[in-house]
Amino acid sequence: MSRFNLRAGLTIASLLMLSTLSIAQEGPRVAMVTSESGLGDRSFNDMMVEGMERAEADFNAEYVVIQPRAVSEFQSTLARAAGQGFDIIIGSSFDMIEPMRAVAEAFPDQKFGLVDVSDEPVADNVVSTVTKDWEGSFLVGWIAAKTTKTGTIGFVGGADIPIIHRFFVGYYYGAKMANPEVNVIETYTGSFTDPAGGKEFTLANVNQGADINFAVAGATSAGVIDGAVESGTFAIGVDSNQNYMAPGSVLTSMVKRVDTQAYDMIASVANDSFIGGNVLYYGLAEDGVGAAMDEHNAGLIDEEILAEVEELKGKLLSGEIVVPNYFDLTPGQKEMGTPPMATPPSVANAK
Amino acid sequence: MSVETLSAPTTRPYLTSLLSAVVNPIMALAIAGILGALLVMALGENPFEVYWLLISGSLAGIPNILVTLQMMTPLLFTGLAVAISFRAGLANIGAEGQMLVGALCAGIVGFAVDLPALLHVPLCIAAAFAGGMAWAAVPAFLRVKFGVNELVVCLMMNPIALLLTGYFATHVLKAPGPTNKLPDVLPSAKLSTFSFYSQVNTGLILALVLCVVLAIINARTVRGFEWKIIGLSPKFAYYGGIDVPKRALNVFLLSGGVAGLAGAEQVMGQFGAYYDNFSPGYGFDGIAVAMLAQFHPIGVIFSAFLFGALNSGSGVLQMMTGLTKHLVQVLQFIVVLVLAAKISWDWLTHFKKPSEITMRPSRSSTTSET
Amino acid sequence: MASDTSKHVVEMRNIVKRFGNFTAIHNANITIGRGEIHALVGENGAGKSTLMNVLYGLLPRTEGDVLLRGKSVHFSTPNDAIAQGIGMVHQHFKLAPSFTVAENIVLGAEPTLAMGRLNMRRAETETGELSKRFGLDLDPRAMVGSLSVGLRQRVEILKTLYRKAEVLVFDEPTAVLTPQETRELFATMRQLAQSGHSIIFITHKLREVLAVSDRISVMKQGEIVATIDNKDVTAQEIASLMVGRSVLLRVAKDEAKPGGRTMLNIRNLTALGERGENAVHKLSLSVRSGEIVGLAGVQGNGQDELVECIAGLRQPAGGKIEICDKPLGATPADNRALGLAYVPADRGGVGLSLQSSIWENMTVGHLPKFKRGQFLSIGDARARADELIKRYDVRGATLDKAAGSLSGGNQQKVQIARELSREDGSLIIAEQPSQGVDIGAIESIHRILVEMRDAGKAVFVISADLDEIFSISDRILVIYRGQIVADLKASDATQEEVGRYMGGLETPIVDTGASVKEPARVC
């Protein structure tokens, strides 16, 4: 009986919806479900909208943005969207993994996309992407080691957890490749929402000689940038382009191109090449990561270094360099990557 | 004859107060609806279509209704909490903070204590009530003992609650993983949900029962009568033999406890764990809900349903148009503004009759001219 | 005082004012001559204020004409009226206490320099000149908050004169004044009239009407029932016109038969006033069952503090109070339990909740009686309130009407009904029982108090109105500087004698020490 009611309700609702649509669209209809922080975050949510806009231009896609106000609204939002005849529903939040799995299983014909949160398949009709953030971290680590005047660089992580270790290992690998003598300080603030703590840790690193600090700490990163401004050193931003936050003090940002990932998901629907139940990795080759260069950090990095970065990218694409993924390492492992180099002490000494 | 005078009076005041609790808000909503329509037109959309989407998106079909109920539930608790205190003349605008602390308490007891569900659920609810009450105790005590303005204290307690709960969720008791949250509550502490489409849970029933109980207390008991008199004229109440400080303290604590229950419902029913900064402002929305309800507990049911429906309809509106969630928020704000304007108007027209109100001659008039 | 009434400054013709179905003013006609003091008298609710609000532009009239200097005028706001030379001196002053006299007077019509800057010097000199011209002595730089009520009223008067008012409406101006201040006000009114101003004087105190006015218009139930020359009328006649029947100004009562029991016993009571001064200083008094004791005194000599101490609304600083042989309780609730029934002067603030319904107002203080477990027997409470409305003849009252919608006299009846209907009440404190109450109601209130006395209760009346004190008291106490300075048998005392005690002129020489506050001085 309840099943019948659900159907009936959905039918009525979709009829209502259809009646409001003006003209039949040729392109795919896309729903983007934001994380609870919503639009205007100058981060993932806003970047994904950029991908939507590109897809609108290229495939005549029609997209809407749905902004749940809380994590508790994810499942109901996805479920109701699933009844509206969208060609694909795209979301991005760690807290959306379980709701999307539940809804995807209940609507096997609906296509879903989950951007940059799950490295395991979610459901048969969900395509999941993972950014090879270790490759991006490698690039900025390399740039930092080439740019440092003191020979010491820092890393400020939000929490001492594997997903953040993955950034550190890439950063460490890149730094050591640029300069085997460089000293890399590894610190974790313990919070992703603690700018004051981020600043403390940054200044502590600066006291130990680090003149560049890579912030991988969500909202705590703002404090890392503050610390850089205050101490006259550099910070490196993360996730989205944070160069604008303190022009002249942010050396670059390790950008995850979630816009590209969302765009590709829509493209796969438009081209009928959507394959669910898998995980797609976005590294340099897929234009999924990068070191952001814009007017806010112009001139901070030497031209020669930038030229060498392009060379480095070529080696990555050809497979000459393979940046190690922390998740492939085992505790106590001594060497990593291609070409092989020593693992950081935190891995080498782990049990 | 005597039968008539006894039976007629008992029903009438109840009905009239209930009626006035319904009629005035409808006027406010009508005005808000017209202003909102103008706004929608200014945005280049068809207001009829937008309103139709809001209504159908919240009421057409079981999924939409269930989402409405889900979004209504926290507002029932916070709206009721605010209504209880305002009716007694205490401006508890700290429901947000009390809810957060209540939620944290429920979240801790929910994962840290292992008990059979029959005991675990009540214990978590009690913990949330106690947490909300404890947080309300600060403004309540300062107000009653020292006459400190509770508005200011509540406003300061809200961000403190957010930071304190945040400290627990990001440092002290953080669950492993990228999200700032406590570990999931044990299954024995979960409130049952009914549908895949919505997180609406048995907490809704608790909220509705509370509203009815409070309505009965307000209308029928000595306490409810005393609260009302205190709210309208504390000096008169004290003179009339009502223990005003004690009652005021109790009402404030009760209000805080009920706000804490909003947190229990969120953690045990909707989220399954304490999430840092989980609330999109249920405590503040509760103020609007209570105002729209004119602080009547039954009115709270209607106005919380309305706000829940607007939020639920907002989801569908976003799916079907290019409009953002902010439109619905603006519509809600317009309702509040119209109500606020109405309340100030009442105040002006009611009290601006100097000749009607007798005042004692000024006491500072002890010196006289020669 | 000769007045030129042939030339009317103001003429109100056939004024009708309706509020919905209710007609507040029926066909009122009134003329005010140049230089005339015209008293407008009537019971509360007779329509005096409504009629004046129509004149002043606060209320639009339903029908009729207002002629100012022979020309028909239509004021939609008080500002229109002010611009045409009509000023109102409100009963409740509309002044900013933290501003100086000059600032208050020019507020809204400030003299300015270039660029809109306030010309404070001119404001002060103009204020000074104005106050001198009308004999209203005031320091333009004094802070209004520091002034006595009488002086504040002068500021109000000057405010209207500054705006060149020719017609001044005084709305119950003496309600807040001491007898001395009242006399000075009357002198001012006469001087204003002599200088060509017309004055409309709203009141219900008949002695004042006869003392100051040229002509008297009597209002009753929205109509002007008579306009009479002062010299042709007596107080008794005006009172009859107001209430439509002959009023006894002195309550008929038997000789008091005080019982042996002391219901209120105060010994060496000391209480601090708002500024920490000894408002009540080592005061002793007692009230026995079966007598009415009146406390006379100029406002501000400690009456308020004394009463608040007895009622449990203020903590005494020393001494003891006993109610029915038991020490005073800690809260008003305790004192009620001891048998205290208290009718406060501050009806709107303390004695009633104006927004609450009448039945609720009548139920507060009687809650234990209607408690059934945790529940309130609303049916019983309402039935009793209904009975009280009838027994105490509260006019215009229905159970669910807000107390604030009643006239002052009927509000007072609600308070009195609630307090005096207590079976266990054996000590009755009535503070200003007839303040703002019309004559008909005063009489019935006094009669109720006498009935209470005859039933063996102790009645303690605090009043600023000597007529009232003499009308009902068996014994008269006079308070001066926080102490009782006279204890007189009412039948032997004269008003003059009591007045002398009130003024401190016959103070038994008891030096009460340095901390005694500055008293109200009467010349």
Automatic annotation (TrEMBL), chain A:
Pfam families: Bmp
Alphabetized SUPFAM superfamilies for the sequence: Periplasmic binding protein-like I (SSF53822)
UniProt xrefs under InterPro entries: BMP_lipoprotein, Peripla_BP_I, PnrA-like
GO cellular component assignments: plasma membrane
Domain ABC transporter substrate-binding protein PnrA-like: 30-324
Keyword Glycoprotein: no
Subcellular location(s) per record: Cell membrane
The UniProt record lists the keyword DNA repair: no
Identification of the protein by name: Basic membrane protein A
Organism of this sequence: Devosia subaequoris
TrEMBL record, chain C:
GO cellular component: plasma membrane
Subcellular location: Cell membrane
Alphabetized UniProt keyword annotations: ATP-binding, Cell membrane, Membrane, Nucleotide-binding, Repeat, Sugar transport, Translocase, Transport
Its membrane topology: Peripheral membrane protein
An example Gene Ontology molecular-function term: ATP binding
UniProt xrefs under SUPFAM superfamilies: P-loop containing nucleoside triphosphate hydrolases (SSF52540)
Main location: membrane
Organism domain of life: Bacteria
Pfam families (UniProt xref): ABC_tran (PF00005)
Family matches, as InterPro entries: AAA+_ATPase, ABC_carbohydrate_import_ATPase, ABC_transporter-like_ATP-bd, ABC_transporter-like_CS, P-loop_NTPase
PANTHER family to which the protein is assigned, alphabetical: CARBOHYDRATE TRANSPORT ATP-BINDING PROTEIN MG119-RELATED (PTHR43790), GUANOSINE IMPORT ATP-BINDING PROTEIN NUPO (PTHR43790:SF4)
Family (UniProt): Belongs to the ABC transporter superfamily.
Protein name per the record: Simple sugar transport system ATP-binding protein
Organism: Devosia subaequoris
